[in-house]
Specification:
The complex is a heterodimer of chains A (148) and B (139).
Chain A: E1 18-19, H1 22-31, H2 37-40, H3 42-47, H4 60-73, E2 84-93, E3 102-115, E4 118-128, E5 134-144
Antiparallel strand pairs in A: 1-3, 2-5, 3-4, 4-5
Chain B: E1 14-22, H1 24-34, H2 44-49, H3 59-66, H4 68-74, E2 78-87, E3 99-110, E4 114-123, E5 126-127, E6 129-138
Antiparallel strand pairs in B: 1-3, 2-6, 3-4, 4-5, 4-6
Classes of the chains: A alpha+beta (148), B alpha+beta (139).
């Protein structure tokens, strides 16, 4: 089943808020080989002007993930999970994520393209804080392989 | 480089370089930290059942570690305001020998408050990320 072209432009319901924990930031930082004190030490983060430890630049994927799960589970999407490959990824930040942030992500499908039998599904997850202010937009292109 | 917060450097300068030794442990650790438990990142039999030679690193792990040399170079002088990559080749992680991923970060463009740093990320001599660009904003 091909990817449903009518997905383009669809906006999903916001996912449940994600509360960024200090230990989660540290765990993620260790997993991506971070050696930055800003990711681990609240005093170092505070001295640099942050309210708590700073999340590494790709941490937003953890918040975005729930929105991508929503997209893959959409009944009429026609996206076969076993054929999905991550094509590209971008994070555009207004400010860095810090521990204590309560983040809410909303996904919209910005483009569906066909290329050589494959479908390219590009989505944007807009992530805002508890006050509604923009923090980061996470943009993914998923490549859905066609029948070989 | 100075400590006043302003960037000193020119387009083409290499600002950071680092090699990351990956093992299967690294993949399990990233799976737990990120919540991405796709078994192609820890089970050879499942990776092989979908036509891969074996377990490969999460693309997001490669993306996540590749920016770290830039984060270290930056320190608290600024922050990463935009980061993008294209996943062009997989990084296979051997159960015994692991894998070695090398990152070279070079200044690509200098704008007003923002500097673009371009990453060259290689595994076994091949680049694994395309158009890997980090925009850093100075405080």
């Amino acid at each position: 089943m091909p990817v449903n072209p009518e997905l383009q432009g669809r906006v999903f319901a916001p996912v449940a808020p994600y509360l960024v924990g200090r230990e989660k930031v540290r765990e993620f930082a260790r997993a991506v080989f971070s050696t930055s004190p800003l990711n681990y030490d609240p005093d170092a983060a505070s001295a640099a002007g942050y309210s708590d430890v700073v999340a590494p630049p790709t941490f937003a994927i953890v918040v975005q993930e729930a929105t991508l799960a929503q997209l893959l589970a959409e009944p009429d999407a026609g996206i076969d999970f076993t054929r999905v490959v991550h094509g590209d990824q971008r994070f555009s930040y207004t400010r860095a994520i810090v521990a204590g942030d309560e983040l809410t992500a909303t996904l919209s499908v910005t483009s569906i393209k066909s290329l050589g039998g494959h479908s390219m599904v590009t989505s944007e997850s807009t992530i805002v804080d508890a006050s509604g202010a923009h923090v980061v937009t996470a943009i993914s292109t998923l490549v859905v392989r066609g029948d070989e | 480089m100075n400590s006043s917060g302003a960037i000193t450097g020119e387009v083409g300068d290499i600002v950071a370089e680092r090699t990351f030794p990956l093992s299967r442990d690294s993949l399990v650790r990233y799976a737990g930290a990120s919540g991405d438990f796709n078994p192609i990142h820890y089970r050879d039999d499942i990776a092989q059942s979908v036509g891969l030679p074996g377990v490969l690193a999460h693309g997001m792990l490669t993306m996540g570690l590749a920016v770290q040399p830039v984060v270290d170079w930056l320190g608290d002088r600024g922050w990463v305001s935009d980061y993008q990559v294209r996943f062009t080749r997989p990084v296979f992680v051997d159960a015994t020998d692991g894998a070695s991923v090398t990152v070279v970060a070079k200044i690509g463009a200098i704008e007003d408050a923002t500097t673009r740093v371009d990453l060259t990320v290689t595994f076994n001599g091949d680049t694994v990320l395309g158009k890997a660009q980090v925009r850093v904003t100075f405080a």
